[in-house]
Design goal:
Length: 473
Amino acid sequence: MRRALTWSTAPAALLALMLALLTAPSTAQAFPASAKQDVLAYLKSITGTSIVSGQHNKEPASAPGQYTQQVKDITGQYPGLWGGDLMFNAADVANRQSVIDQARTEWANGSLVALTWHVCPPTGGSSCAFDGGVKSSITDAQFNQIITDGTALNLAWKQRLDEAVPYLQQLKDAGVPVLFRPLHEMNESWNWWGHRPGASGSARLYQITHDYLANTKGLSNLIWVWNVQDNPAGGWSGYYPGDAYVDVASLDAWYKDYPSAADYQQLQAIAGSKPMAIAELGKIPTAALLDAQPRWSYFMMWSEQLKGDNTNAEIQTGYFLPRVLNQGEITLPSGTTGTPTPGPRTGAVTGLAGKCLDARASGTANGTAVQLYTCSTGVAQTWTVGTDGTLRNPNSGRCLDITSAGTANGTRIQLYDCNGTSAQQWQAQTSGQLRNPVSGRCLDVPGGSSADGTQLQIWDCNSNAWQRWTLPG
């Protein structure tokens, strides 16, 4: 009933009753600790039918929920998505813990979590002003150093990322997946990282950032949100870092109130089957927009634009559109795409033709090939399913690993020191597949060959029998 009436037409008595109901204490249930794939599966499941409401909260870090509270005051509802920032000025950088604490609270209350980062350039200090810092230019020579492994500025960039790791790690440890949107609006020239199309431009910096945080630092809870602004110059695909680096494709609408039909089509062509989002906008979405552009999975109102660019009636109407999902209206899948079934459990992993996952020649060294082999008792075919998403061979103490953290079809599988990186993450699917979340590919027997000694690989997930595995019970 609350969505069938508008705030402007409801009778006064009924309106009073509605307000009383909407301002009652929230009954939203806490989200459980979840994997990033649970959130991605949810966003995919609502694509085309629903959209999650979102509200960004800019500085100061000491008030990380102030704009979200404005939504509640106006509508009686909290947004389904809370947005925050890792900040840039000295006082806010020193108070990042408040932002992380708010993120955990929002997740516990039943809202998804998003973080962006107006990051200072590695040519300067850890904190900076917006003008002359975040909003500044660096030379082509400096940029080329940042993306060249081993240079002073490349190391400085990784050290800058290190400053955020302890905070992001807290969210990982708490089971909070984060819609992480670094280096946003990379097709714009206002920021130091942007306006460099091509393989050695802004997209390359995004790839380096992804690989460092996801692989080197093992932050498997980050949902990687790639972002451009609705610049009429177009050419957004020139900034795309590749499917292996992007979980969600997003657009900021600032050149106009809403994405145009051409904007929507351009981003859709880049995103393919990935979820799409409006990551920043100033005007609350309308029914006409959402009906015409149904693939948006969430929108994020920018902080002060909530009240600055919208009337209370417009905000209320937007939050009560049939498509819009607010806090308490989001139901995540119950671990169907999360980590393997709780363990640890130890035993054989069986696959094609009833054969087993096997460490070649009972090897224990790094780089030992992992193969398909006739099942027999022994240490080479004993695996422990970890609660952390790993498959560990107890004899060697090493983990099932994708060689060189590769993400391409055909990358071979080996044993390697357990290191917490995404190359050692395996998610058990209800279909029997073991999926690596960063590559998006599954553990696979090349060509469906059941011959003993066939070294395993990753490959596009499919319905073939040679991607189905049975874990120890």
